[in-house]
Amino acid sequence: MHLPFFISDGENVQQVTAQIRFTVALAENLRGTHMSRLTEILMNWTRRPIKISDVEKILLDALKKLSTDGAAISMAFKYFVEKISPVSSKLSLNAVDCSFSGELTRGERMKFTLGLEVPFTSLCPCSKEISDFGAHNQRSVCRVKLRFKNFDGVSIEKFVRLIETQGSAEVFPILKREDEKFVTEAAYRNPKFVEDILRDVVLALRREKNLEAFAVECENFESIHSHNAFAAHEEILP
Amino acid sequence: MHLPFFISDGENVQQVTAQIRFTVALAENLRGTHMSRLTEILMNWTRRPIKISDVEKILLDALKKLSTDGAAISMAFKYFVEKISPVSSKLSLNAVDCSFSGELTRGERMKFTLGLEVPFTSLCPCSKEISDFGAHNQRSVCRVKLRFKNFDGVSIEKFVRLIETQGSAEVFPILKREDEKFVTEAAYRNPKFVEDILRDVVLALRREKNLEAFAVECENFESIHSHNAFAAHEEILP
Amino acid sequence: MHLPFFISDGENVQQVTAQIRFTVALAENLRGTHMSRLTEILMNWTRRPIKISDVEKILLDALKKLSTDGAAISMAFKYFVEKISPVSSKLSLNAVDCSFSGELTRGERMKFTLGLEVPFTSLCPCSKEISDFGAHNQRSVCRVKLRFKNFDGVSIEKFVRLIETQGSAEVFPILKREDEKFVTEAAYRNPKFVEDILRDVVLALRREKNLEAFAVECENFESIHSHNAFAAHEEILP
Amino acid sequence: MHLPFFISDGENVQQVTAQIRFTVALAENLRGTHMSRLTEILMNWTRRPIKISDVEKILLDALKKLSTDGAAISMAFKYFVEKISPVSSKLSLNAVDCSFSGELTRGERMKFTLGLEVPFTSLCPCSKEISDFGAHNQRSVCRVKLRFKNFDGVSIEKFVRLIETQGSAEVFPILKREDEKFVTEAAYRNPKFVEDILRDVVLALRREKNLEAFAVECENFESIHSHNAFAAHEEILP
Description:
Largest sheet of chain A: 9 strands, mixed
Helix content of chain A: 25-40%
Number of helices of chain A: 6
Strand content of chain A: 35-45%
Number of strands of chain A: 9
Structural class of chain A: alpha+beta
Distance between the termini of chain A: 37 Å
Oligomer: homotetramer
Strand order of the largest sheet of chain A: 3-1-2-4-5-6-7-8-9
Order of helices and strands of chain A: EEHEHEEEHEHHHEE
CATH topology of chain A: Urate Oxidase
CATH architecture of chain A: Roll
Shape of chain A: elongated
């Protein structure tokens, strides 16, 4: 189902249109659950900001109101981050596909995963090297699933910035001529295979002290093929 | 609904997985139609090749078996065309989104539309001109809707070839190093805005004597934005 | 592209996540357009409520800033309407797929189309009649495209209400046991074919004095098939 | 990417349009892989039937031709199974979403997962019990992921039959009046919550000696809500 939620990220609160999946564990002696109680819990959360630690409160509500020992929720929404064009400094907004996924078992701590899908440009090193001029490039996305030790202070925007700077160049909704020159040349100077980008995202994530585990997928919408190039890695941090 | 169909294109017959919408006009004195009769008609066509003129036969069947004065069908499927890599001559297959749409009113001739969605590469002339090196490029698609005077001899593959050569370069499922060099340089030598590609497709279609009308949309999955560039035109031929 | 917009509907303002297509006519003497100017225009509209007559202002902006004679925009978003469960009176929100589409040619009045996709239940009259007990029913949607004479006072919510009451029963996000009994029995008492629902929507729309033209599609996600039943009609009002 | 494949299931061979993801492990000392070699391997498999044990051959090809220690492939396609209407005995075809997923590490046995998404009808026991007449029902799907001990003799069709009979009633593309009466009454006599269907699928799968592990998801496209009811379970068999 879809509901309007207010997502709180650091100082910012943003209203989003969230697609929600909300489930509870079913005790062996019960035949089915009370779906409408789940919707009632969600309705209570449509008027106040939701930060990551609030996801645990939603799940605790579910344990209580449905007398169950386990509950899980995922909310997927577009989250907007500001982009300033690199030369002309024009402000615009990029939509990032974002998800909050929480799982709670009674008596334990919530397992929370932040999902992000962040776009950027990639330019092929092989194409640059072998060609007398030009190099094929394309839009790419990086999808991450991040699991945190502490939920306080986790910032969606910080991780979007961390990821979008690992491609050959960033993408921007507004680019004047001088910006287009800048972005074209920046990408040409910084060629990266999909595997290079994956490695750089992995290295950047390993430096994040608050991460417990992560999974990364990078995908290039290859401009010279009608299929995509893909690389993936996952890791549990010590 | 989906059904397996054999599509006949010139000398070739190809089995496809078709998504079908099949409707009939409802006489004023009737409350509803007999949906299962439509499925029965379609089942008769799962074992023999369907060429464009057969779409009219399917619709005539519907007029007869459902005692109605109008019927319409659309079948959407992936159609595979062979691609030979430009230097190494490796054979592979590109999937093209294809649709057959027919409308028949009793006593009239079928109105038939062939829909195609064909991928290729585009390279931005502005980016090439203003940059000291490189130029942004990306995968693009051209969607056409073609209406024909005569149905005999219409070739899906011919129109795919006509369209895929209007971009900056063609896309290929297999590209060895020498092919990648060729395609990269070809695109760089042939920069085109989305509007340029549209105009060239329009000019090529105007030369087709058997066309009655057409609509064209070109879309670039811009590598420097997370949004797309788009151009469209439609025309009735004299 | 996607942007957060505030949609104004009568007394209400609702923030939405809008998917936008924004295009301008290209003069014959120009090779391409300035895409980023379109994004700049849109950015100006992310902070203030947009009502239907504002869509014309956005398009006028485009005519001016891109020196063109034609512009078109469509914005598609989920719009939430309140639903009160029929017996227990519990409040919840239903998401309706909504679109604003405007086309403006210099010197003319904007052509505006409101698109809505509204869910409800349908119960099959034939199944009810021939069966000793029960009757198959399913979720259905009605998609309308509405063209208006005057833009002031057009209410999204009013048309959602008008449409959702034409099925066999309404759908609700929260239904307690007493509500479920009510809805089940209401649908059983009010069996309708997809064609019946279409006719009733058409009759209701013909009574709307402010409509110039409309198109309606109804689709049942048949519970006894894995395909859907479909009916469509369009009309220009005198 | 998409390719036409011939899928072999017991005695039957069926041509399908497969969406493919094909990846290899990248050795630490290598910067990137040779994507086109993967496409070349796949092209070799477009002309001969593929049964489950052939997926291992495709992966062995990848280990060899890309000098790697790991490879994975998934192919997703619509597979058609025959349906005979229950009273009138009319033959038609139901499309089932099917996937073959294989992972191979050098020196080990392939891990293979068969994915199926099978549609049927569900009728709500609560709605039946509390209502004076009727009961809400809807289309449902069951998604399974099946892991096998032995690959020989695994039958797609057998598992489709096993699953589609666990709902309240089966769905059929062709239903004459006598069939519609049969299906309507069958569903009314056999009410099941989404959790009931899940449990019955789980019990049926536990009886399959050749299964090593499975995951099951059932989803009802609720006719009285615009959201869905959902239940899931996974299990490793002893």
